[in-house]
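Newbie here. three chains, one complex. Structure please?
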Amino acid sequence: MTRTAWKFPAAAGVSLAALCCGGGAQSGAEERQVNIFVWSAYMPVELLDAFRRQTGIDYRFDLYDSNEALLEKLQSGVADYDMVVPSDYMVQILIAQRLIQPLDRSRISNLGNLEERFLDQPFDPGNRYSLPYLYGTTGIGYNREKVPEPVDSWDVLFDPRFGGRILMLDDMREAFAVALRLDGQSGNDRDPAALRRATERLKAQKPLVKAYNSGDFANILESGDVDLAQGYSGQLAEVVRKNPARFAYVVPREGGTFWMDSVCIPAGARHPAAAHALIDFFYGAEAGAKLVNTVHYASPNRTARAGIDPSILSDTAIYPTDETLGRCHLIEDLGALTTTLDESWTEIKAQ
Amino acid sequence: MSRDVPPARRSAPWLLLAPTWLTLGLLLVLPLLLMLGISFRERDVYGGLKPIEDLGATVVSGAFLANYTRSLEPIYLAIAWRSLWMAVVTTAVCLVIAYPVAYCIAAVAPPRWKTVLLGLVVIPFWTSFLIRTYAWMFLLRTEGLINTALLGSGLIGKPLELLYRDGAVLAGLVYGELPFMILPLYASLEKLDRTLIEAARDLGAGRLASFFRVTVPLTFPGIAAGVVLVFIPSLGQFIVSDLLGGAKTMLAGNLIQNQFAVARNKPFGSALAFELTAAVLLCLLVYALAVRRAGREPLL
Amino acid sequence: MSGDWVRRALAAATAAAYVFLYAPIAILILFSFNAARQTAHWEGFTLEWYRRLLSNELLLHSVANSLIVAGVTTAMATVFGTLAALALARGRFAGRAATQAALYLPVIIPEIVMGSALLTLFGAVGLRLSLATVILAHVAFSISYVAIVVRARLTGFNRSLEEAALDLGAGPVGVFTRVTLPLILPGVVAGALLVFTISIDDYIVTSFVAGVGATTLPLQIYSMLKVGVTPEVNAVSTLLLAVTVACIIIAQRLQRAPGPGRGV
């Protein structure tokens, strides 16, 4: 990572590369570095170190906290990243704006390790530009001592009995998805009347909400500031695992959000070969298992299952059942409708 | 005895200002002009910029002002008003807290202690603003330190709701801006000629009178600098209201940040930002004119 | 009698203000030694987080980056800003209003706009993001703060002192270093402190313009906080604090040599 730190592995890397990449084939020998831009805590340093030991390729990485921040950096054209990990709807946008390049399948030998059902998503048909990295759901985490009846519907978040003890994600699309689903629509509905009803429902809910927070929701639930929290599976699963008697996570019967983050290579990447090597590394059985065991999010890597901690595999909050997944849907980008939706969101937040 | 500035002196400002102009011109004015240009454009489907088909028509029809027109809708004006109010209160509270501190350091404390005390004011701000905000959350939470202490000592029966409300946001804003009020006040108070106060007392003025009629007016530049340095950033703040306010209030800063981050509407966000800037510049202009009329020195 | 009362009240108000300032800091420090990860409950004293800190390369790297950026920025911005304040104190000249406007800009523009604007600029000219782009951005918004603070100090500045020195044969540089500078030094120091503070803690603008490997401490902390507060972050803050306090104490000791009159 630091200048001095990479001298040794780089030297090892050069000799390694010279040994095994003698011939004319395009090799990673020229590229002894890969620059990664990733969502916080998504890429364990131990794994990257293992990658460096194995291939001699050094890494540097930066963290971003929102897909939009990623988009802006890529749009500027002067960010120097070789691998990025955007969310589903952002992949769609990056493809449309030609900010990411097609992946070279020949360099990813572990491609077959991926479960087919996670491939070929609507935001990247045929997986030309992206491959699934980690996935999860959005549901409700709740305090079983304070919410005696088991939760199975989103309408519990609108229940005045829990006024002031509710947390919602500070995320426009997720909030609207909840309201739309209660109305029998999908989270991607574009019908103006349905959106208006959803806006009114969310406005009515606001006095009951203690806080909107997309980062700390699990801690806020755990610390007892709220009894019900809308949130992402990975972090809420952590809270439940620590104290299953007290907390639970559920994807309501109306359905939840299925989210998936994918690895992509920016269009102007300076070290694409190294990036491909890194992607291939992560899709190996051993690295894949270590990844899940460290970050506690679900991975579409089939072969990794053998090495994953059984308690994680059987945790339905982290690895949702097929039935649960069947009820969940991706959030798609709404294009021009985003502006209208944002106005409604402002209306809700500003009152 | 006034002297005319000798001709040789008149070129000096240019040399003194060259590095500033170079830096500000390239790194501030230029990018802001770029952003101004963006504020006249429209968001395209994916959040980029829509290419301009007909420049002439866009200018003539006034379509390029679309974002500015939109910002005058009632919902946005309401947000502006609330932000203004929050900033005014923050600045006032900051001033009230900061003045005694600055006065103490400048006038009351022994000279040896001045640097230490001044340093102590600044040191907390060399820790991360985010951490300090999280520390506040830690203090104010339902199971946080304050509630635990109060419940434990039996002073209250139920935990107080201190977090995720406007009061917490105010506390957070004041906390973040305090050194920006203390330091300029100190700089101004430090060179205050105390003999003037003594003269006022000799002439029969009470403590309060001599404070408000001698000290305060003389430290006006420091007060003004502090007010400027606190009021304006308060208008654009969004992190504090997100964290300490539970993201329940939409202030101007949140609105602008939203446009850049969530709505991916850079043109509208830029337009809002420039309006905020224009409003502030207007206030500063009014202030400068008033100051000139009163015969005092302006801020810069 | 009433003098005492006022003094006591002032001291009390000041003390209260310092308590307000240091309450979160005290918590920070205290809980960097707490064995528990999250909660308000004390689970035992430990140095574990400090140990982990020393092996957290990412965090240490970001501290180094922050110090480099803050150091360079403070040096440049203090010089440029002081010169600018001196120039503006001289009275009218062509372009004065423009200069004032330009200096107000960084204080007025919301940080998110400044960050986005700078990123757009760097993109337009093809300047690759790095630690240098962070420094450029920081200097750009810091000059104003120094200028404003030093300018406040210069108000009512007694020009005749400078003129007297010139009459006595000192060159313009001599006048500056032996008359002007000592008198404005508290303002300059205050300005420098302000800039260092702003730079080391800046998140928004930096997040836009930092390049690969140019992660500064606030950026690093923000991403760590998003996932959950680790006391390692408290530990690094405590250490930074300790180092800063040590520096100030050393600076105090070095300042023991008697200076001219007031304005220490």
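Moderator note: Chain C has a mean pLDDT of 82. Chain C touches chain B through 104 residues (CB under 8 Å). Thread marked as resolved.
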